[in-house]
Amino acid sequence: MRILIVAPVPPDPDGAGAIPILLHAQLSGLRERNELTFVSAVGDEPGEAAAAAGLDSGVEAHFADRRQPRTAASRWRRRLRLASAWLRGTPWRAAWFAAPDIQTVLDRLARERDFDVVVVEDSAMADFRLPAGVPSFLTEHEVLRPRPVRWRPGSPATWPGWAFGELDWLRRPGFQRRAWRRFDRVLAFGNRDAEAIAELAPELGGRVRVSPFGLVLPPVADPHREEPDTVLFAGNFTHQPNRDAARWLATEIAPALRRLRPGARLRLAGSSPPPSLLALAGPGVEVVADPARIDPYLDSAAIVLAPVRSGGGMRMKVLQALAAGKAVVTTERGREGFDCFGEEPPLLAAESAERIAAAAADLLGDEPARRELGRRAREFAERHHSPGAWAERLEAIYREACEAQGDRADA
Fold it and tell me: Does 200 share its domain with 246?
């Protein structure tokens, strides 16, 4: 198939967030049997320009420029464009990532060639005009449900930022619903998100499909580098569910774990930790800000904890731990996307701080059980989450929509 993919950022196997890593796996799997054209933009975020320049030659790539303009006049024009888009109802994230020059690239490609499938990654990119008459797919990276305003504005100095954030969040679920309606199929990474899409937009229930994401599998973690009683939580701390999980770990779960296992040490590693998370560092708690790579921290961890209590979408750090052959303790929400294959995922799940701490303490004290759970975790990732396995699921969904469109045309 000739597949056009539109994404918010370049693929990057070492990206700080989940989306670049996910895109790297997606392209790695699909390019084996398909002709791929990738369209995105390069911003000022660290590593984006290098990732775009280093994209594998097996993929035709086109990048618009989303970087800060050099002149003051150009910077003001960009600010006015972003503000205007926001005032018209576009969430800030969509206004930020959807660089206008991407549309110029898409229009040119639509004139020059034909595509069998158009795939848009994330609803932030859903407002672009796509090639006409081509089956279109939107991968919703995280479904947002409406929620009440959080009336916790803090000190007067923080009121403008709080008000902007709440107003922006209130428009995001509606923006997502409008985006979903534009596409022939909407893909979710797990059953919970698929059910949420069907609930929030019942008329689209027949268009929703589940396809758990994939990962270019890392080497299996070296057990000789493991540091006894070290517990790891890794994540992108710009994501609110990760900040919540880190605070819960440091303030409730880790103290409960140390009561059961006095030598246990918690390590929080991830990008962009705010001051409130940096302040959690202390006896038995280490905070690693913006690590260049997560692999060394996976190697040194005895187990990985992922006590997520909110949010949806992908659980990239859980999958990275499973793929590295690590024993993982998470929550029922953390299991989402790994429970779609008719078999129990090889990880432990609990809901309270005490039960999570007890499961972690048991694994820390039982090396054979820890190793066996990690072995099964790696095999599970190879079976279901490799780029090839993910590409097969995606190709089946693409073919289904293409065949349905052909049937409608015949009728």
Answer: no
Q: What is the identity of the amino acid at 76?
A: W
The whole-model pTM stands at 0.89
Give the total number of structural domains in the chain.
2
Torsion of CA 119, 315, 379, 304, to 10 degrees: 160
**Residues recorded for the chain:** 411
Which parts of the chain register pLDDT below 70?
Answer: 153, 312-313, 406-411
Could you tell me the CATH number of the domain that includes residue 353?
A: 3.40.50.2000
- Interatomic CA distance for residues 60 and 42, integer angstroms: 15
Q: How far apart are CA 263 and CA 254, in angstroms?
A: 11
pLDDT of residue 407: 61
Instruction: Clarify whether residues 297 and 169 are in a common domain.
Output: no
Spatial separation of the C-alpha atoms in residues 241 and 50, rounded to whole Å: 29
Helix axes 367-384, 353-364, angle to 10 degrees: 110
* Torsions phi, psi for 15 (to 5 deg): -65, 150
Residues 108 and 257 in one domain: no
The pLDDT assigned to 411 comes to 55
Same-domain pairing of 151 and 291: no
Beta bridge partners of 287: 268
Together in a domain, 64 and 166: yes
Of 82, 47, 61, 79, residue with least CA distance to 5: 61
Domain interval for residue 327: 223-385
